Amino acid sequence: MQSVRGFQDIHKQDAILFDIMNAKVLSFAQFNCFESLHLPIIEFEEIFANHLGDDSDVVSKEMYSFVDKSDNRIVLRPEFTASVMRYAVENSLDKQVLPKKFFSFGPLFRYDRPQKGRYRQFHQYNFEILGASNESHTDVYGIFLASELIKKLEVQNVILNVNILPKNIELYKKKLYDYLSNKNLSDISKHRLSKNVLRILDSKEECDIEILKNAPRVTDFLEEEELKYRKFIAEQLQELKIDFEFNDNLVRGLDYYNSVVFEFIQKDLGLAVLGGGRYNNLFTNMSNGRTLPAFGFAAGVERLMLATNISAFLRPKLGIICADEECLSKCLQMINSLQEMYDCDLILNGSSITKQIKKADQLKYEFISIIGTTEIQKKEMTIKELSTGVEKIVKYDY
Ligand code: AMP
User: Fold this and answer.
1) Whose CA is nearest to atom 8 of ligand 1?
2) Calpha distance 380→367 (Å, rounded)
3) 223 CA to middle of ligand 1, Å?
4) What is the pLDDT of residues 143-201, one digit of tens each?
5) Rounded Cα distance, 327 and 398, in Å
6) Whose alpha carbon is nearest atom 13 of ligand 1?
7) pTM (2 decimals)?
8) What is 235-300 written as a DSSP string?
9) Using a 6 Å cutoff on CB, does residue 108 contact ligand 1?
């Protein structure tokens, strides 16, 4: 028996880290006044097919789609943003008190090529800021929040890549196409040329990288106002002491971005752990012309897990051994109060104290404390570190 390729069990140490990170990110979202938005795992196919770009990888080859028993074309969601926008249109968010800030978390599905850090089912933390009229402040605030999230999760060795997409992206696409069309590109890039020319900028193939060195640059297509905006973003990031690089080749592969885009790349993995940007047109396209400015970012949980050090999050584990039955209630109450400092548990296996200590060791509990009538009378407890045998007596009012 085995699980489906690209789908994995999250268990053992990974499950501990997954849960700790989820709790941290949920409180991060709450502390920053994001509302939780729990969205369904399936949506109508058109939500993604009509709005992410037909030629995007996600739509053209990665969607898990099926026809349900009522002949609806359904997909397992490949991303959150389009679902959030579907929700925004369905609930006329543009007519409500704005801005709205949403946090969503959960599994996403892409029929991608599985490898380290790339799975067919993976999880994201997704943040969206909708209807904020001060767009420049929102962009800087959003990138700052993303950077704080990365810090909070102790993800080391990351660099922020930023780009500003020109209003006149169609002209840029045409010029890029003209330049690339007579070049000897890799097979995959040749295929992308007519379908999604911007994706060629992402190519990791040596021959493409060489050709791209002389390709038209996206910055050359920015208007004066957009160049000023690029400078503003740079100044703000410098003031915030966020390390960043402008990357002209960063386009993010989806049609809906219209201005600033960014990614945090983890250097050891060589992969993005978080990405986002401004996408003012998605709501307009979905709602037949209404407006709702939008900015969002999403972080991939599995990639964050690969890039963080679990020990930064773990608390010591303490096993309580109840030596006399009449002490049981005191032991249980004590477990409750000790949980501020330790992950604390009552040892439930082992017919003798020696066997219970052995059990605590097998369970990888770092500390034990044996509680009997003597300890309760003396109002103290002995905490023993199992790896060293070192004991510490502390006062405890049972
Ligand atoms: P995207 O929705 O493509 O902008 O991706 C946002 C983040 O989700 C990326 O920076 C990754 O951390 C993560 N991610 C995207 N695709 C995958 C995948 N197939 N497996 C694992 N994580 C992914």
Assistant:
1) 300
2) 16
3) 31
4) 999 999 999 999 999 999 999 999 988 999 999 999 999 999 999 899 888 888 988 99
5) 10
6) 300
7) 0.92
8) HHHHHTT--EEE-TT---S-TT--SEEEEEEETTTTEEEEEEEE-THHHHHHTTS----EEEEEEE
9) no
